[in-house]
Prior knowledge:
Elements: H1 19-26, H2 34-41, E1 55-62, E2 75-81, E3 92-93, E4 96-98, H3 106-118, E5 126-130, E6 134-135, E7 142-150, E8 164-171, H4 172-176, E9 181-186, E10 189-196, E11 199-201, H5 203-215, E12 226-228, H6 229-234
Helix pairs in contact: 1-5, 2-5
Amino acid sequence: MESAQDVALRPAAAPAWMRPLLGALEGDAVSPGGAARVRRMLNGRLPRSASRDEAAVLIFFTGDPHARELPADAAVLVTHRHPDMRSHSGQMAFPGGRIDPGDAGPVDAALREATEETGLERGRVVPLAVLDAVTTGGSARRVRPVVAYASDPGPVHPASEDETDDVFFVPVADLAAPANRLSVRWRGWTGPAFWAGGYLIWGFTGVLLAVLLELGGWALLVDAPVHDLADSLARSRNNERHG
């Protein structure tokens, strides 16, 4: 759950097409929901005991506020990390980063980071849910994913060009399309990945997307063809330094 001092969640403000996702996330403790599924797909990694949340990411959706089923304009915000970054260079990611001492909690941190990275106007964003913490594979940080929504998100752009060099909304329908889905194999780990605008979304971000698409009822987890990660990255626009 979010901190008592953190930015308040407003799940009742979600459009009808997002409510199945929120319901599935609410039942995470007793069913194979969001964070539990993500942990399994990241080889069962769990938050380190007695540790604090270290980072937060914003999984930010937009789409028709009046639709009852997934609308054609449903989309999710992603960023491309600058290839010169010291960590996770060239990777596709959700906006987010370290929780600073001045942040009220993970929701506050995710909103701040999203504004700093993408120019997203904080006042447009409605925080809906917070997943249980998940430890990432590369940096081994304890991360809180925050799900949010806006019917009119306004313009976004690479607001911090040292961190991100591309920022855009990916249509959910594109992510669900079989032609854009694959699995990648890297150092004994195999996980879901997506093609989006010539970029390859994989790793922590790819796993989160795959799980949320399934929990929302928008796309099933599929046994997509398995490709070597290095080969897939060579075909992509990522310009990652490793893989």
